[in-house]
Amino acid sequence: MVQGGRVFEGTVPLRQLERLRDLLASAEGDAVYRVEFGIDEFDVEFVDIRVDTGLPLVCQRTMNVFVQPCSISQRLGLLRDEREENALPEGYEPLLVTDGQLHIKDVLEDELILALPLVPLSPGAPLEQVPVTAGSAPEDGQSPNPFAALGQLKSSRH
């Protein structure tokens, strides 16, 4: 595929991406992809990956399901040995291919998992207000000393 500069395009249903599916609110939808293999001017074998989809996630503020747009464009340098990683040009992410085979679906799934937000928040979700209780902040504007209570305990023991 690398020597021939092969290009693959298509769609994959999210429900077929088993590891990703478990992280989503639902497995509805498709990921549209384009994968191109080649060799660059530095003789580095690479695969360019482009993926566009919407990921159904649960907003951690509202607990409602929303669709997070996801667009990935990544160039992966194909490595046969981990020691080759330092030779990759800037802008390449390493992809270890020890057996000479690459499963496109697995690579697409890996990239989508990496694109997931740590804390999903739907756009426009209301910010939660932290209630302020009377007497919680000193009137002089200085922050309270978190160790003041320990000092009181120490002086009461003597």
How does this structure look, described?
This protein is of the alpha+beta class. The chain has a domain of 109 residues. It contains 3 helices and 5 strands; from the N terminus they run βαββββαα. A 5-stranded mixed β-sheet has the order 1-2-3-4-5, covered by helices on one side. A hairpin with a 6-residue loop joins β3 and β4. The protein is flat and about 75 Å long. It starts with 6 loop residues before the first strand and ends with a helix. The mean pLDDT is 84.
What is this structure, in a nutshell?
The chain has 158 residues and is α+β, with helices and mostly antiparallel strands. 16% of the residues lie in helices and 32% in strands. It starts with 6 loop residues before the first strand and ends with a helix.
Give a topology summary.
Layout: E1 7-13, H1 18-21, E2 30-39, E3 45-58, E4 65-79, E5 93-96, H2 104-115, H3 148-157
Parallel strand pairs: 4-5
Antiparallel strand pairs: 1-2, 2-3, 3-4
Family: Belongs to the DUF177 domain family.
Function: Plays a role in synthesis, processing and/or stability of 23S rRNA.
InterPro entries: YceD, YceD_bac
Radius of gyration: 25 Å
Secondary structure: helix percent: 10-25%
* Main sheet: strands, sense, barrel: 5 strands, mixed
Overall mean confidence score, pLDDT: 84
Counted by DSSP, the helix tally is 3
Number of strands: 5
**What is the distance, rounded to the nearest whole angstrom, between the alpha carbons of the first and last residues?**
79 Å
* Global structural class: alpha+beta
Neighbour order of strands in the largest sheet: 1-2-3-4-5
* Helix-strand topology string: EHEEEEHH
- Described by its quaternary structure, the protein is single chain
Flag low-confidence runs.
Answer: none
Indicate the proportion of strand residues: 25-35%
Query: How would you sum up the global shape?
Result: flat
GO biological process, one term: ribosome biogenesis
Region (Disordered): 127-158
Keywords: Ribosome biogenesis
Family: Belongs to the DUF177 domain family.
